[in-house]
Amino acid sequence: MQQTIKLKKGLNIALRGLPERVLLKCPSPSSYAIKPTDFHGLTPRMLLAPGSVVKAGTPVFCDKYKPEILFASPVSGTLQEVVRGERRQILEAIIVPDGQSASEQHAAPDLKTASREEVAQLMLSAGAWPFLVQRPYGVVANPQATPKAIFISGFDTSPLAADADYLANGESVPFQKGIDALKKLTTGSVHLSLCADYPANNTFERAKGVEIHRVKGAHPAGNVGVQIHHIDPINKGDVVWTIAPQHVMALGRLFINGTYDVSKIVALVGSEVKRPRYYRMVAGASLSGLAELVNDGGERKRVISGNVLTGAKVGINGYLGFYSNEVTVIPEGDCYEPLGWLMPRLKKLSMSRAYFSWLTPHRQYALNTNLNGGQRAFVATGQYERALPMDILPVYLVKAAMAGDVERMEQLGIYEVIEEDLALCEFVCASKVDVQRILRKGIDLMMAEAG
User: Fold this and answer.
1) 220 and 424 in contact (C-beta within 8 Å)?
2) Residue of 439, 431, 433 whose CA lies nearest to 414
3) Helix residue spans in 47-86 (DSSP H)
């Protein structure tokens, strides 16, 4: 019998701009980009020079310290430019498509008889290994490690999140094939978490070879890190891998067709979108073709690859992130309120009862990016604990990360969290502390010191 995990903490941020269940084809992008910044802890080394002709699945760069991990072109075309930042850090490898559908072909083994090494080797050579994210630390999985379990979250509770059930429509075959491949990579179980509030898509419900868990609660209940904490917590020395449902499907297509296919369905959402809908896109696609779908005039817009809590600000000429399932457009917070906090703020959302949002629980908000205050003394208000449904002390963990105290971070549960797990704490923080940046700095220190 499946057990339901009931979470009492958290907060659903109801923003205006949920997508209609209408699937359209995205206007043909003029370029694509593979961004090393999408992969934490990666030091890239280029394998190709500008001007090189590539196919979908052609390796473009690799991890300098784990050269077997390849990062492949999402489309066929020409590597036009390698954009570099300070100290020649690689920021983007830009590919101009040729309009063809040429792909690198790989011989996929029969999963009924294939060994773990054969499955891993195909994923590595095809550029599909970055689908796997390792906990602790939230980095691309280490091929030399064997995880105690693999986790998949079959729903997303973040603001304006794409409906995972809608994304999985008609994908039963590649999803199941992807599950079969994942089972070869771990000695433990493959866990699939579903929302307990409604029946899930048949693609998830009828999946074989997985342990299904039901989770009930507000955001961040859909975060895979929260689910791991309540199902099989990470202790020192443990390794757990996670993978998104659409990447499970892409993995399945690799073993069915022998090609690297990172096409996916992406939600274009937010209060500044004319008609929020779903679009079929390819990872790394330029977002410039979506400009006509954004409201004209008014305030400046912020275009985010991902959700408003954890996504990256990319602009309308930016590119879709490797792990992003949504593009969010909201007003830029460059305006000032007369009298500031003295105003009643009837249109503001708050986790506390300082404002009046608790009187209208079903209201949708058109929020901008204003901080509504400046950074101030870091005080314990209890808001972090109300926002995080995990048995850790988030305020003390963040303070330990600020102090660079490796031993204290380890004691307070740094192995169990990454930025997305504490993103809601940052949203409700009265002190305006940059929680996610501080946490990543602490994680990087743990990786350097503890390995």
Assistant:
1) yes
2) 439
3) none
How high is the pLDDT of residue 184?
97
CATH number for the domain whose boundaries are 107-257: 3.40.50
C-beta separation of 261 from 182 below 8 A: no
Q: What angle do CA 161, 163, 164 make, to 5 degrees?
A: 110
User: pLDDT at residue 342 above 70?
Assistant: no
Residue pLDDT, tens place only, 321-333: 999 999 999 999 8
Q: Kindly report, as residue ranges, where domains of CATH 2.40.50 are found in the chain.
A: 31-102
Structure-token pair, residue 336: 């000032």
Q: Which residues of the chain does CATH 3.40.50 include?
A: 107-257
Which H or E element spans position 162? Answer: none
Query: Each residue of 185-221: pLDDT tens digit?
Result: 999 999 999 999 999 999 999 999 999 999 999 999 9
pLDDT for 299 beyond 80 = no
Looking at the chain, the whole-number percentage of residues with pLDDT higher than 70 is 95
What pLDDT is stored for residue 369 in this prediction? 87
**Dihedrals phi, psi of 449, to nearest 5 degrees:** -90, -45
CATH 3.10.20 in the chain: give the residue spans: 12-28+263-348
How far, in Å, CA of 443 to CA of 440, rounded? 5
Look up residue 78 and give its two tokens: 């020409």
Q: Angle CA(361)–CA(10)–CA(167) in degrees, nearest 5? A: 85
CATH no. for 31-102:
2.40.50
User: Which DSSP string corresponds to 121-144?
Assistant: HHHHHHT-GGG-EEETTTEEPPTT
- Residues 265-274, mean pLDDT to the nearest whole number: 96
Q: How far is CA 428 from CA 361, 370, 440, in A?
A: 17, 13, 19
Q: How far is CA 167 from CA 159, 172, 280, 289, 309, in A?
A: 17, 11, 10, 21, 21
Helix (H, G, I), strand (E, B) or coil at 422: helix
pLDDT confidence of 334, banded at 50, 70, 90?
A: confident
Domain range 12-28+263-348, CATH class: alpha beta
Average pLDDT of every residue of the chain: 93
d(CA 220, CA 11): 7
For residue 100, count other CB atoms closer than 10 A to its CB: 11
